[in-house]
Amino acid sequence: MLRGLKFHTRRTKTLNFLKGLKDGWGGINAMHVFFIYLEKAPPEERPIVAVILLLLDLMVILFHST
C-alpha cells in the first residue's frame, strides 16, 4: 500500500512537472523556449534540440493518456 502511494505521489509530481513544461510557469513556456532556440540554433545543435522537443511532447501525451 505504501509503495503504491509512493509511486502515485512520484507520478503526480512528474505529471505536474510535465504540465508545467507544456503550459508554462508564470507565462514562460519551456517548450516554446526550446522551439525558439531550435529556430536560432547552429545547424549542428538542431537535431538534439528537436529530439528534446519531441520527447517532451511525447511524455506529455503518454502521461495524459494513462
Helices and strands in order, then pairings?
Layout: H1 2-23, H2 30-40, H3 46-65
Helix pairs in contact: 1-3, 2-3
Keywords:
single chain, 66 residues, 3 helices, elongated, mainly alpha
User: What is Rg?
Assistant: 15 Å
- Low-confidence parts lasting 5 or more residues at pLDDT below 50? none
For the secondary structure, the number of strands is 0
N- and C-termini, Cα separation: 20 Å
> Pairing-aware structural class of the strands and helices?
mainly alpha
Question: How much helix, percentage-wise, in residues?
Answer: over 70%
Strand content: under 5%
Please trace the helix and strand order, writing H or E for each element. Answer: HHH
Main beta-sheet annotation: none
Produce a short descriptive summary.
The chain has one domain. Helices cover 80% and strands 0% of the residues.
Would you write up a description of this structure?
The structure is a single chain. The protein has 66 residues and is mostly helical. It contains 3 helices and no strands. The protein has helices at residues 2-23, 30-40, 46-65. Helix 1 (2-23) crosses helix 3.
